[in-house]
């Protein structure tokens, strides 16, 4: 408080000597231009946050609307609802509301009023003095520290900034990577000023309010313009500090959450791996099925010893470590105000202990059973191995032979392919006879194993019987296949001869039909009766040849029917069509039927054309007689109609009419009630809402604002009584101002990083947070689906509540 008072006194003392100088400069055009430019840029730097800007400070602030909006942006408070009318009284009312708000902040307004005189001096004072009042009220601290490398203090707002080193030092103090201060020269103020202005505009988002040439070329630069520009640095650097604080808070919360999640993942993975190992191991230990070989049983014994010596001890350590990790995690969660960890179903510590007990039970007796089985197999292994070797060799040879002999490949084969299959079958019969001795040896060994009471005699007997049955079946299939191949060979030779004869007779007959169809469909153009009579005579000669052609067609189809009869009688499956021709019986019948249909059509066309030629001859004679009479009458009528249409077109015009309308929308009054007006010690919902707005809470009249107010009311009025007691209000404000890590504070920190938006983007997270924690947020934040969403927007609100167990991630 004392520091603020001292700062205000120093400001008043500093500004007092300038009154006379301001009065002299007020009519200076250069000073006036610099003032307008500086104020306009400063105002736009704040108004663009509200999505608007001004072009002419003299005109755009005259109605008071954008002046009130500027006050709301830089103060963070809501002003009274402005008047929307266009009359002078509405404008004066809006300006007075803005001036009253400035005065309420403790700023004295001397000679400033909305009803000033209409002179340029008074207008300029009306527009510039409120701006300086805003600057002094809401930008009180411009004394930013200038440590190394400057080592100097700023004693005057005009001369101390003229060489540009002050601006460069200010930027270097907070962002040393942007300017190399050691390379700047005091004797080059123009370069220094342009460097500072360009860097501030490009990297700090501070608009260029001043011109380096105006500062260097003026003996005494305007202090108010410089103070306005320097205030922008204060806002830029203070905003960065808030973002850094918010980022640090988020980093701390996320670090704790990441550590807990890593412990949860480690527990889940360790529990899953251990349970999976137990599930795989128990069936292995409970398996008492004997093996057929000594080597397999010995390998089982060696595997069991490796299990007791190598595999089980590490799993015992993992089980102990799992219990330690679970208890440690629960303690960390409880200390960090997080919900208790609940493992996935079936992965509790008790579930793991139950599974481990089943494992211990399965181990008992497994090793003793293994030793007994090995001793028993040693006596019979040698003879059984000999049987298996011979049986395997024979089975390997017979594998696929039955399927080969049962193939019906000859049914779809051509004549040349049948001859090749016969030669291949003869070679197989020779190989079959050579394997007769091995089958007899297998049967002898199986008989010996039965006499020695081999434990697996049933399977040996079954295998031996299978080999003998298969051998007999191979012999029968071999004979059957030879007979089928020879029979098919004879049938295909007969069919081949019929195909050849069919092809020799079908080709010329097909060519005759195609030529006939072309002639019958040929378009004729005649002009006399004699020409049509000649076409009719040729057509009658063609019809006389049709009976002989039909006989030839019947003979060709008879050849094909004979082939079909052979195929149906002997069940021959033809692999393809006639190899000697592509002409099918269906094509022959189709073309023949088409020819038969075209003949009467041709007859009808010729008759119609003959009648038409006779009619044309009569019409030609009648036309010649009447044309000489009606020709002059038609010419006279055409000339009359053309003259009428020309006159009508020249007089065909129509007038156009227009109408206009206007629409006016009257303004609506708005009043704000104050808290506690009924002296009852309680607040109604609307009074409490107004109180929250005055404290800086963003509670609008939209759906989002109503939802936020309903959430706060559920805290201060849990019994839904419709009132807020003084104690409930105090408790709520205590929780809101306490410096603890809560979901609301994390949410507020994210909102700072997001620039007061209801969502945050990937680029903003990566710019403000460390890489690992930025990627952690990106991977877990849900997409934002609000009305103001943009592509790639993320919902930091649900993410913040999920960090404290208030919702699911």
Automatic annotation (TrEMBL):
Which keywords has UniProt assigned to this entry?
A: Actin-binding, Calcium, Coiled coil, Metal-binding, Repeat
Work out whether the entry's keyword set contains Transmembrane.
no
Domain Calponin-homology (CH), which positions? 33-115, 129-238
> What positions belong to coiled-coil segments?
253-280, 418-452
List, for all copies, the residue spans of the domain called EF-hand: 704-739
Matches recorded under SUPFAM superfamilies: Calponin-homology domain, CH-domain, EF-hand, Spectrin repeat
One GO molecular function term of this record is: actin binding
Source species, domain of life: Eukaryota
Q: Which family does it belong to?
A: Belongs to the alpha-actinin family.
Q: What's the protein here called?
A: Actinin alpha 1
The beginning of the lineage is: Eukaryota, Metazoa, Chordata, Craniata, Vertebrata
């Amino acid at each position: 408080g004392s520091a603020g008072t001292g700062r205000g006194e120093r400001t008043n003392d500093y500004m007092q000597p300038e009154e006379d100088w301001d009065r002299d400069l007020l009519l200076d055009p250069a000073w006036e231009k610099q003032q307008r430019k500086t104020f306009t840029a400063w105002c736009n730097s704040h108004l663009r946050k509200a999505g608007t800007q001004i072009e002419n400070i003299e005109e755009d602030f005259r109605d008071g609307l954008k002046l009130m909006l500027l006050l709301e942006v830089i103060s963070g408070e809501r002003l009274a609802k402005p008047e929307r009318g266009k009359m002078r009284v509405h404008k004066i009312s809006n300006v007075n509301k803005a001036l009253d708000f400035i005065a309420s902040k403790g700023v004295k307004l001397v000679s400033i009023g909305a009803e000033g005189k209409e002179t340029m001096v008074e207008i300029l004072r009306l527009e510039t003095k409120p701006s300086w009042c805003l600057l002094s009220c809401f930008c009180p601290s411009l004394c930013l520290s200038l440590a190394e490398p400057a080592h100097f203090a700023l004693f005057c707002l005009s001369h101390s900034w003229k060489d540009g080193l002050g601006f460069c030092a200010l930027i270097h103090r907070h962002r040393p990577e942007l300017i190399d201060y050691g390379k700047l020269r005091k004797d080059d103020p123009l370069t220094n000023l342009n460097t500072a202005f360009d860097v501030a505009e490009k990297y700090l988002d501070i608009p260029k309010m001043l011109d380096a040439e105006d500062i260097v070329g003026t003996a005494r630069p305007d202090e108010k313009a410089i103070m306005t520009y320097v205030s922008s640095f204060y806002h830029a650097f203070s905003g960065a500090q808030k973002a850094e604080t918010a980022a640090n808070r988020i980093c701390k919360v996320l670090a704790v959450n990441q550590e807990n999640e890593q412990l949860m993942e480690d527990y889940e993975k360790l529990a899953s791996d251990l349970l999976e190992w137990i599930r795989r191991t128990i069936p292995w230990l409970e398996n008492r099925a004997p093996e057929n070989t000594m080597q397999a049983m010995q390998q089982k014994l060696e595997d069991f010893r490796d299990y007791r010596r190598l595999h089980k001890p590490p799993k015992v350590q993992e089980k102990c470590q799992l219990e330690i990790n679970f208890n440690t995690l629960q303690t960390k969660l409880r200390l960090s105000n997080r919900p208790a960890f609940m493992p996935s179903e079936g992965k509790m510590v008790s579930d793991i202990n139950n599974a481990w007990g089943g494992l211990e039970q399965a181990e008992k007796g497994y090793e003793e059973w293994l030793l007994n089985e090995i001793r028993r197999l040693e006596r019979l292994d040698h003879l059984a191995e000999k049987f298996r070797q011979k049986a395997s060799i024979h089975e390997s040879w017979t594998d696929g032979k039955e399927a080969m002999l049962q193939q019906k490949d000859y049914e779809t084969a051509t004549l040349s392919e049948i001859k090749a299959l016969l030669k291949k079958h003869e070679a197989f019969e020779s190989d079959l006879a050579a394997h007769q001795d091995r089958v007899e040896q297998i049967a002898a060994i199986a008989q010996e194993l039965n006499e020695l009471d081999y434990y697996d005699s049933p399977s040996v007997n079954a295998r031996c019987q299978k080999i003998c049955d298969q051998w007999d079946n191979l012999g029968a299939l071999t004979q059957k296949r030879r007979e089928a191949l020879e029979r098919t060979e004879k049938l295909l030779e007969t069919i081949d001869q019929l195909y050849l004869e069919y092809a020799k007779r079908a080709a010329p007959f097909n060519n005759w039909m195609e030529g006939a169809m072309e002639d019958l469909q040929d378009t004729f153009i005649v002009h006399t009766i004699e020409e049509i009579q000649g076409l009719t005579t040729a057509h009658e000669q063609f019809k006389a040849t049709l009976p002989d052609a039909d006989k030839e067609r019947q003979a060709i189809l008879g050849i094909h029917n004979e082939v079909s009869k052979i195929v149906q009688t002997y069940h021959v499956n033809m692999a393809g069509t006639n190899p000697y021709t592509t002409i099918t019986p269906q094509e022959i019948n189709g073309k023949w039927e088409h020819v038969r249909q075209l003949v009467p059509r041709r007859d009808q066309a010729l008759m119609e054309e003959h009648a038409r030629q006779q009619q044309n001859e009569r019409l030609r004679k009648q036309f010649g007689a009447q044309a000489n009479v009606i020709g002059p009458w038609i010419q006279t009528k055409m000339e009359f109609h053309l003259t009428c249409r020309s006159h009508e077109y020249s007089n065909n015009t129509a007038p156009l009419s227009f109408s206009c309308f206007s629409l006016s929308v009257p303004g609506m009054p708005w009043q704000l009630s104050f808290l506690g007006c009924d002296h009852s010690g309680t607040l109604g919902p609307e009074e409490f809402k107004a109180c929250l707005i005055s404290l800086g809470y963003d509670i609008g009249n939209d759906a989002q604002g109503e939802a936020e107010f309903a959430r706060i009311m559920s805290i201060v009025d849990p019994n839904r009584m419709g009132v807020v007691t003084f104690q409930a209000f105090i408790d709520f404000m205590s929780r809101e101002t306490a410096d603890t890590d809560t979901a609301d504070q994390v949410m507020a920190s994210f909102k700072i990083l997001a620039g007061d938006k209801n969502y945050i983007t990937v680029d903003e997270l990566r710019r403000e947070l460390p890489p690992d924690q930025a990627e952690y947020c990106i991977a877990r934040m849900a997409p934002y689906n609000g009305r103001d969403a943009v592509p790639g927007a993320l919902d930091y609100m649900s993410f913040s509540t999920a960090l404290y167990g208030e919702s699911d991630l």
